[in-house]
Batch of 3 targets.
Target 1
Amino acid sequence: MPTFTAPDGTEVAYHVRGEGDPLVVLPGGPMQASVYLGDLGGLTAHRRLILLDLRGTGDSAVPADPATYRCDRQIDDVEALRVHLGLDRMDLLAHSAGGSLAMLYAARYPRRVARLALVTVIPWALGRPATPEERLTAARLRKDEPWFADAYPALRAWLAGEEVTDAEFAALTGFFYGRWDDTARAHAAGMEERAVVEAEEAFHGPGAYDPPALRSALADVTAPVLVLAGEADGGPCPGLARLVADAFPHAEFAVQPGAGHYPWLDDPKRFTDRTAAFLAAEGSPQP
């Protein structure tokens, strides 16, 4: 397991899967160990994935200062990884909450990003989280599912901030997947091991984002960007994900039919074909 040392001395780990040109991958959660990403539906057939374990997660060390869990404080970790890998510019893929970190990195280091793929990213960093009604609206698309009657009340209670039992939370997990099958259930079970609670809470903590300043900086990013949303995802729903694409001058926006928050599980071929095509497209960002 390779590691590098962050500027503050924290030992940060990453995992390498596949062959070919490197693709640095930032996990979501927030603060979920990268293992849940797997091989991104077979994307390893096209690229060598460099899967970062954010500080305090997976095989990375817990930092001495818990304040460094905040999203903007982790930009230096991503830059340290780029330097460690010896890349002048890097292709970057981020999932979910990792998209906020990727956007902040692109804003600070625009010349270090060659291509950027943002997968089911809520624009937290742009000051626009997913609302409960958006999530419930997306959930109602699943009304014909046999598990809907039990899961929907649990989701509504959870979004209202009410306490839910482990069984109720397990029931509502189906809404995060486009297909609630054995593959999705196994994946959901593996998501249960998370980072320490303080890391999750600190990631989007006060002071992490300055939406007006970020919008201004992203308008100058010349790298091609792909923003991919899931048709059945509620966080973000496609309309919310489009706000991410609108923040960049050179962004493509795509909606994967039938997909939830983990589109590489719902239709691996469609996901890998679309993502690999974007990463392999001709054309480079301006110097």
Target 2
Amino acid sequence: MNKIFSTKLSAVLVGALLIGGCASYGGSSLQPGVSSLPEVLATMGEPAMLWTNPDGSKQLAYPRGPLGTQSFMAYLDADQKLQRIDKVLEMAVFARIQTGMSKEQVLRLIGPPQPQSTQYFKARDELAWSWLFCDSWNTQAFLDVLFDASSGTVRSVGQRPNLVGRDGIAPSCGH
């Protein structure tokens, strides 16, 4: 009987830890204007990229891949207090990516792609970056940004379904 109770208790504790971990996934426990840079780092972890602006404010990129469909940008003011956290793999953000933008501008909008989602096409001298996201129909899709590899500027932007699901159907995002 003690062994069964111990196993059930362990399962409950693991579940509680997983739920607690999900709360910090997007920094939902952090408070704008109150939370500091060390608190952001303790909650969300080390960012994949960090930019310091001329005024001392910071932008931190948190891609939640390789199989995740969300990326977050945390913005801190010059006093290192959290201003906001934005979910950036969204259609409204994608609409801001325009032909001629630099790779740096794209990175600051939506963060880095996963390394396995980067491909170079020699014949076209084209670099392709892809991000997995949830589309408007709540299914997984890829955003593809194609760069002129020589100039490093955006050539085109598009999206396509993630057809790895059963019978080649894009998997649901589950929310």
Target 3
Amino acid sequence: MSVGTGLALTLGSAALWGLAHLWTGRRVTGALLMGVYLSAVTAVVAALFGAGAELLSLIVQPGWLWAFTLGGILFAAATVAVVVRSYQLVRPESLSGPARYLSALAVGLLCALVIAPMAYAARLAYLSRSVVTSVFGASATPIPVDPWRGRERLNILLIGADAAANRIGVRTDSMTVASIDTRTGATMLFGLPRNLENVPMPPGPAHERFPFGFGGEPPYTPGMLNEIFQYAEDYPAMVPGVPKGQRGPALLKKTISDFTGLDISNYVMVDMYGFAKIIDAMGGVKVTIKAPIVYGRQNEGLIQPGTRRLSGEEALWFGRARTYSDDYVRMGRQKCLMNAITKQADPVTVLRSFEKLADATMNAVSTDIPRELLPNLIELSDKVKSSNIKSFQFVPPLIDTGNPDYGLIKHKVAAILSRSDDAPSAPSGSSAPSGSSGNAQRHPGNGPTSLDTVCG
């Protein structure tokens, strides 16, 4: 047998175990190796293309991530063993010293090529475990097999936090309640202005401290909704028994639950500058811009209208800019940005830039969602991605942020959710469509707006 034939059979054995064994007459061993290999490959391919959300639900569980890591290492080791043994079987006995060394080097390189993708897969599994364990804590109580049983909606508070180095504390400048139908995935986003004043506080120490609505020290000057988070962090007595770092989210969830009538179970908070890094890790995000948006702290540029892919910094300004605009218009743009990310964060995009995404996520995201709930949330998120996400914003003229009608807010939430399954989309009860200029005409409207329609 020639050197070329021997190396070709060795290479073939890396792609299909048992090939060299069959060639050399070891039929039983070759057939066994080939059967094991084809079974393993078939199972993996079927899982990748057929399991969908079920597979994703496994890769957010630390135990399974360890299993994937170990499985990848063992498969690589087994393939290397098969390659080496195959070379021993087909190697010509008459090889001279230099030829022997060169052929051995070629086999060594082949083994390295086999190990590399398996090692990378093992690294991805390890990074996934790091993200899951660092961002998501363990549940204090057991999670039911079906956590949505008897629960029609899951309400999660989404917070965009501005904690720049030149500012004291955390300002929750973006607050949205995502209300998700646990059966269909249909999602309603309720946008809450950061400057809502006289916010009624929930029963307990906070209400005793501010019986007439949240405000500053005597003479009780009005305070805004985006100040509650940091106030709770600074004054532990407002949420007794809650550890530092969770006081702000705890009081903010209670407060918003109380005046919206929604049972908000969890929160997710994203640091604004970390958010830009997440967008960059995704390779940018594509949005439709309806009117020029001023870009930069010194108003040094414009993001021009049109459908374009924004970098992380551009996306940050798309969601934050208020020049020639206002809080309410930018709230609409923020919803469009959330919708775009939800639709564009497909598995291929995530896998392609996983390491950067993992690093950005660990530094930018905080939440009280327990890791044990992640498999169920993955399955639910698959329904959300295929649903028509809608938005309703509690902004002028429907709501006077200086003197809000909190009873009207609660009534509107209940009315919208009661007809959300069959009501046609109507103009938002909020500001002008996202991306429009700050001078656009506003109208109260009676129903939610489809983000797919508004955002383009």
